Amino acid sequence: MLIDTNFLYHNKRAVLKQHPYAAIEAKMLLLLGKYVNVPKLFEYDEKKIIMEYIPTDCILDENVSARTLAHLHSQHKEKYGLEFDTTIGPFLQPNGQKSSWVEFFRDQRLLYMGKAALEEEALPKKHYELLERVCKKLPSLIPDTPKASLLHGDVWSGNVLCHEEKLYLIDPALYYGHNEVELAFIMMFETFGKIFFDVYNETVPIEKDFFDYRYGVYQIYPYLVHVRIYGAMYLNALERLLLRFA
Known about the structure:
Layout: E1 6-10, E2 14-18, H1 22-32, E3 41-44, E4 48-52, H2 62-73, E5 76-77, E6 86-88, E7 91-93, H3 101-119, H4 125-141, E8 148-151, E9 160-163, E10 166-169, E11 175-177, H5 179-188, H6 194-203, H7 208-230, H8 235-245
Antiparallel strand pairs: 1-2, 2-4, 3-4, 5-8, 6-7, 8-11, 9-10
Helix pairs in contact: 2-6, 3-4, 3-7, 4-8, 5-7, 7-8
């Protein structure tokens, strides 16, 4: 289900967001705010959230961005998922906790989003069948027990703000998972460049397999989200990934 979201800026001091998952967004921001800068929450309930307005008045420093996300990803738990379901963009995102990363990523990310897109007729059946083939191969494509890192879940330029030389994150899609998922999101939209990855690697080493092929496996999920939102304009890119790994 697409969220009907309305934004209201008031005197550049506060932002009002109205949507059915406002309370979930607030819970995510409260958790995320323990480790990185996020807008202050003034008020929220099941249908609205009022938060601090963060103006963008500086250029993002990739060193700061890398250290910020490395710090976030250094927060670990034993299981993948989260104590509550979250959202990504306009969609609910299930977070039932698992001890197997392969099972979590297969069932609660790829197949969940793929089935929803199929039912809404955004994803053709032949693409869903390719997705199922990829899912059968996941044990040979991704590790089963990487560290479960706290992920923002939707890092792209629109969700990363720079104010007074500080980095702020907004619109999270929070859960604990393989940190490489976040890096794959970043590569997909070229949110950061080489300096970011070099600095990040100094704190959280990035395995060679990520750059060789795993980034592509992890980009299947955001492409499914985008196909479900925007339709055919992202279908060719998704198909190329599915054919690569099926």
